[in-house]
């Protein structure tokens, strides 16, 4: 095995020009593959990060998202008084009745109006979502026209920096602070006092209640308790499940698109690899004849050439991953169709994704190298040796 | 031209290699033309929008509506010639996956202001006379197999419209004569939706016809000033601005699809250039013999380069032709929902062919130079 492996390796070095070109072709395909999937990955991670295993979100029965849900005022204390809901040190329930509306703000990059989610939250919101951390200024004071802005929203939309005044809902609001939320979608949002948002947008009901459970295992008994109360036409869901569901459509679309493009593109790269390997086999007919004469079996010849092709492709795959790497962490945005508002997120290249890219390149190498390798093994020994 | 036979002959030298190269160029051009078509599809509505139509929305966001009494106030603005309004309905046809756009329109004025909606006179009359009637685009009708007279039941998607299902009768199937209106939408009478709406007399947006396109900014400002400091402040802009803000919702599509297209081209350059270099190397002796016979270096350059362009052009023709056939709104039914209709047109085919020539030239330069710079003595001495 050692001899034949080093033979293949050295053959690659001899044809370094051709080998490099083939690898680069595959590198480009893998780069596109990794980059498009990094979008899907980043988008999903941002939404999933919005959920916490300890939290539940309560929506109207049958509502698929906050936008189409309604929670009536009298229902809030009924939920808050359930024993499954955790309490803060002052004895009040860790629950936040919320309302999400969309406001229009110009984007920094192209000045186009974008749909920015504006979330009215209850006084306990920051305790329920403990990943939130103020990085500038302070929390808004309940009962005043103050707002807090997510870090990504500050960068993406105009006029949201600390201290600036924003006009919406026939009033002017002041930015009192900027927060981070572990890359969750909240970082694309604007937050304010829900009891001021409702009259400002002529709404009479909340849309959801997000609450902290005393213990993640209390979820089932909470669902039962809500179902047993005829005054509650609501359904609690685990926050994690809810946000994973919200990201599903968009993630599927991006993944499907990325796969479609890379599949077509990979056919071209496989042809390139095939050409290269056929030429390699034709070049080395005499050498192959020699190997066969020395007693190497057909199978060994096939595996050797296949391995050469795969190695060539995996080198390309590695380069492709490196080419894609600089986009990691770049922030971009798109509209989440489930909420009809913009979500900013970062490209996210995970080790798993890079492994996927390498595997994909190996596959391209194997497919491209198979036919030439078989041809190599079928060369009649006598004729091959006679060839000049 | 007299060398064409020779070029063809050498292209046939290794048929399998030529075939694979042509196919990889074909794939690149196919992908390139399709990406271009998708991008153009997204931008088409903005480009085809009328310059004499301006749209008024709530300044807060397009999801909020405003009273229809705004209509009278807008009519008094100088330069306004005609006006209509519409509402987004957001109903669900059987399953949320069957998403398509439904608009509640003020029928007479809307059809008057959007000549892009082409309806037969009798269909138009039937639609105007039936309070629960609707018209659907020919693309949408095809998607669900609807014909005139069919009943369409929509579940309510936005809570404002109550909880009872809406039943419509199809009174006409329209064609479009411009990309400002797509053929995947449904229009019905605003009155019908308003009757069941929890909040009466609401318009999602107003469309105003202005006499002179140069006045657009002026009229828009005058309209917005009418409602400044009211509970329903407005934001008025041209139809084009509205459409392009819609496209920008998806994020930076130009950059994303553009970079993929560049990656496609580079991949193909590597593949094609590599193959041509390989074939030149194989023919070293042959080229040396030709040089000895007196063919000038320049001729060798053009022979090899010409072979590259020929192969690329052939691949380009196959790829662009396939894209024209397959990526076609009549064949693919991807449109609907938020994705606009798109298809590869002759302009994309031309761009694709130009691209293939570019690939042929760039990929052929190095091998052609190699061929023309060959040292005859060394090449003749070389074995294999």
Description:
The complex is a heterodimer of chains A (388) and B (384). Chain A has 388 residues and is of the alpha+beta class. Chain A is 50% helix and 20% strand. Chain A has helices at 2-14, 16-48, 75-80, 125-128, 151-156, 194-200, 219-228, 239-283, 285-294, 298-324, 351-378, 381-386; strands at residues 55-60, 95-106, 113-121, 133-137, 146-150, 165-168, 171-180, 190-193, 208-212, 234-238, 331-336, 341-346. In chain A, strands 1, 2, 3, 4, 5, 6, 7, 8, 9 and 10 form a 10-stranded mixed beta sheet that branches. A two-stranded antiparallel ribbon of chain A has the order 11-12. The longest helix of chain A is centred in the last third of the chain and has 45 residues, at 239-283. Chain A starts with a helix and ends with a helix. Chain B is an alpha+beta fold and 384 residues long. Chain B folds into 2 domains: 4-46 and 251-381, no CATH class; 60-232, no CATH class. Chain B is built from 14 helices and 12 strands. Chain B has helices at residues 4-11, 15-47, 70-75, 107-113, 121-129, 138-144, 190-196, 216-226, 239-248, 253-282, 284-292, 297-326, 346-372, 376-381; strands at 53-58, 66-67, 80-88, 101-105, 117-118, 133-137, 151-154, 166-176, 185-189, 202-203, 205-210, 234-238. In chain B, strands 1, 3, 4, 5, 6, 7, 8, 9, 11 and 12 form a 10-stranded mixed beta sheet that branches. In chain B, strands 2-10 form a two-stranded antiparallel sheet. The model of chain B has no long low-confidence stretch (mean pLDDT 86). At the A-B interface, helix 2, strand 2, strand 3, helix 8 and strand 11 of A face helix 2, helix 9 and helix 10 of B.
């Amino acid at each position: 095995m050692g001899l034949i492996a080093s033979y293949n390796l050295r053959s690659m070095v001899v044809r370094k020009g051709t080998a490099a070109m083939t690898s680069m072709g595959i590198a480009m395909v893998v780069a596109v593959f990794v980059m498009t999937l990094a979008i899907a990955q980043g988008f999903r991670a941002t939404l999933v990060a919005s959920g916490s295993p300890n939290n539940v979100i309560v929506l109207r029965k049958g509502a698929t998202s906050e936008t189409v849900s309604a929670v009536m005022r009298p229902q809030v204390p009924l939920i808050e008084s359930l024993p499954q809901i955790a309490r803060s040190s002052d004895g009040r329930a860790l629950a936040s009745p919320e309302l999400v509306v969309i406001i229009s703000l110009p984007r920094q990059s192209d000045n186009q109006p974008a749909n920015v989610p504006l979330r009215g939250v209850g006084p306990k919101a920051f305790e329920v979502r403990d990943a939130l951390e103020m990085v500038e200024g302070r929390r808004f004071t309940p009962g005043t026209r103050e707002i807090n802005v997510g870090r990504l929203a500050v960068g993406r939309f105009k006029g949201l920096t600390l201290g600036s005044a924003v006009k919406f809902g026939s009033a002017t609001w002041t930015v009192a602070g900027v927060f981070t939320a572990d890359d969750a979608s909240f970082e694309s949002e604007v937050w304010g006092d829900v009891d001021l948002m409702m009259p400002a947008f002529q709404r009479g009901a909340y849309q959801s209640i997000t609450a902290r459970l005393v213990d993640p295992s209390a979820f089932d008994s909470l669902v039962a308790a809500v179902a047993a109360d005829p005054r509650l036409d609501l359904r609690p869901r685990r926050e994690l499940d809810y946000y994973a569901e919200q990201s599903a459509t968009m993630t599927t679309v991006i993944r499907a698109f990325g796969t479609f493009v890379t599949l077509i593109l990979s056919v071209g790269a496989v042809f390139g690899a095939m050409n290269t390997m056929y030429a390699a086999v034709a070049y080395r007919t005499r050498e192959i004849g020699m190997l066969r004469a020395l007693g190497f079996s057909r199978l060994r010849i096939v595996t050797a050439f296949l391995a050469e092709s795969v190695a060539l492709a995996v080198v390309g795959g590695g380069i492709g991953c490196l080419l894609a790497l600089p986009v990691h962490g770049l922030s971009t945005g798109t509209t989440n169709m489930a909420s009809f508002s913009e979500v900013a997120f970062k490209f996210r290249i995970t080790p798993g994704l890079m492994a996927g890219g390498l595997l994909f390149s190996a596959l391209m190498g194997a497919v491209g190298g198979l036919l030439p390798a078989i041809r190599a093994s079928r060369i009649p020994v006598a004729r091959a040796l006679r060839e000049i | 031209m007299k060398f064409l036979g020779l070029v063809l002959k050498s292209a046939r030298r290794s048929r399998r290699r030529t075939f694979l190269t042509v196919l990889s160029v074909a794939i690149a051009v196919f992908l390139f033309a399709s990406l271009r078509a998708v991008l153009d599809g997204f931008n088409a509505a903005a480009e085809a929008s009328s310059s004499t139509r301006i749209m008024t929305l709530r300044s807060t966001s397009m999801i909020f509506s405003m009273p229809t009494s705004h209509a009278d106030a807008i009519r008094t603005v100088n330069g306004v010639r005609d006006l209509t309004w519409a509402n987004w309905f957001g109903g669900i046809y059987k399953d949320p996956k069957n998403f398509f756009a439904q608009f509640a329109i003020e029928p007479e004025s809307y059809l008057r202001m959007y000549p892009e909606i082409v309806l037969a006179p009798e269909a138009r009359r039937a639609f105007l006379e039936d309070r629960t009637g609707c018209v659907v685009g020919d693309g949408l009708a095809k998607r669900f197999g609807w014909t005139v007279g069919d009943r369409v039941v929509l579940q309510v998607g936005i809570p404002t419209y109550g909880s009872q299902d809406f039943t419509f009768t199809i009174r006409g199937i329209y064609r479009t004569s411009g990309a400002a209106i797509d053929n995947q939408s449904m229009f019905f009478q605003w009155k019908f939706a308003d009757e069941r709406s929890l909040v009466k007399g609401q318009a999602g947006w107003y469309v105003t016809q202005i006499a002179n396109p140069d006045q657009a900014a002026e009229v828009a400002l005058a309209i917005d000033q009418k409602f400044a400091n009211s509970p329903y402040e407005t934001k008025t802009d041209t139809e084009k601005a509205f459409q392009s803000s819609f496209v920008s919702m998806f994020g930076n599509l130009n950059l994303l699809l553009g970079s993929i297209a560049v990656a496609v081209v580079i991949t193909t350059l590597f593949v094609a250039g590599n193959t041509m270099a390989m074939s030149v190397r194989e023919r070293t002796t042959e080229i040396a013999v030709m040089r000895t016979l007196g063919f000038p270096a320049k001729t060798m350059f053009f022979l090899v380069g010409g072979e590259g362009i020929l192969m690329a052009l052939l691949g380009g023709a196959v790829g662009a032709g396939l894209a024209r056939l397959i990526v076609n709104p009549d064949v693919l039914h991807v449109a609907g929902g938020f994705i606009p209709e798109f298809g590869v047109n002759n302009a994309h085919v031309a761009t694709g062919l130009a691209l293939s020539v570019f690939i042929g030239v760039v990929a052929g330069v190095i091998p052609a130079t190699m061929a023309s710079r060959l040292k005859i003595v060394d090449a003749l001495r070389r074995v294999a």
